[in-house]
Write a structure and sequence with these properties.
4-stranded antiparallel beta sheet, mainly beta, two-stranded antiparallel ribbon, elongated, 6 strands
């Protein structure tokens, strides 16, 4: 959630995902993976977050075992 008084013009989500968990699809964000680190950046239409607004449109499907950990948003 954007708790500030000005719009956020882009965002990035980063988290760790075990190598045994394979992402089979994602939506509403561009996903890259290097080792166990997954980085998500928004599609152009979802990059701006107005004050008081929350991003809720990103998702992904995983095959295998393991859960995301160490999530950070910037």
């Amino acid at each position: 959630m954007n708790t500030g008084s000005t719009a956020i013009n882009t965002w990035k989500l980063q988290f760790q995902l075990p190598a045994t968990a394979v992402i089979s699809q994602s939506w509403s964000g561009a996903l890259t993976r290097v080792g166990t680190t997954v980085t998500v950046t928004p599609e152009a239409w979802a990059a701006k977050i107005a004050p008081g607004q929350t991003v809720t449109s990103f998702g992904f499907c995983v095959n295998g075992s393991g859960e995301p950990t160490a999530a950070t948003v910037s």
